[in-house]
Amino acid sequence: MGFAVPLAIRKPFKPLRTLLRVAGLFLIGFLLNLTSHKFDFTTVRIFGVLQRISICYILLVGIHCLTDYGSKYLRKYGAMFVVLMSALYMGVMISFEDGANCSRLNNLSKLCNFTRWLDLKVIHYEHMLKPTDPEGIFSTLSSLLTAYGGYLFCLVMKDNKKKSDIARQWFSWAIFFVLLSFPISLFMPYNKKLWTTSFALLTIGICGTMLVLMLGLIDVAGSPGGRFSRWIDILTSPFLWLGMNPLAIFFLMDLTGVLMIRIIFVGDG
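^ that's the sequence the OP posted. Answer follows.
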């Protein structure tokens, strides 16, 4: 999602279109949750994947606009803000304590962590995924780091014209993020449910590496007139369609899952 922001948000900025896009994402995600809970507003889960994407998207749009649309001279301030939010997330998470059964020894477990504690206080137990909502309120700070990684890779692409320069910088950043995740994982282990900072950094590095591989496969080996261009076009065309319709695919996938749960009953015998 972060990769799309510099491509979609250009001068002149159209705030109404952006707000409608964010609201649409959030409401579609909430509608999917509402469907799975049989339209029971007393137990419906408030947050989810699309809701988190919408929040990270509007935050990145704000960063993009306030740094003069990713200007080379101002983008460092956007990076500083994201680093500050990640540091805040790590500091609060690893120092959290809540009674004798929830200390610093186990404050990153599924039943003892600040993300769960905050969600219980704000949105309450009935409206969250149990025991800890992976798309909870506080872990959005860490997921912003993941979104910013995609944003950074897009800025690198826009800054460079040569594919070799893009690939080299992408790969350098990918290695940097992966290596940075190792020392952080010593005090904040990789954990998808909590979307820990180490996990966010690792996923940025893996995605960056995949971008380099796709660049080499599609834009270099599959360039027009190349020996394997025709076969690469055939093999990658389904993925091109998938990449152009991610929201519709996610919506149908989630809706299909809800319907299958309603239709297929699994008994004990």
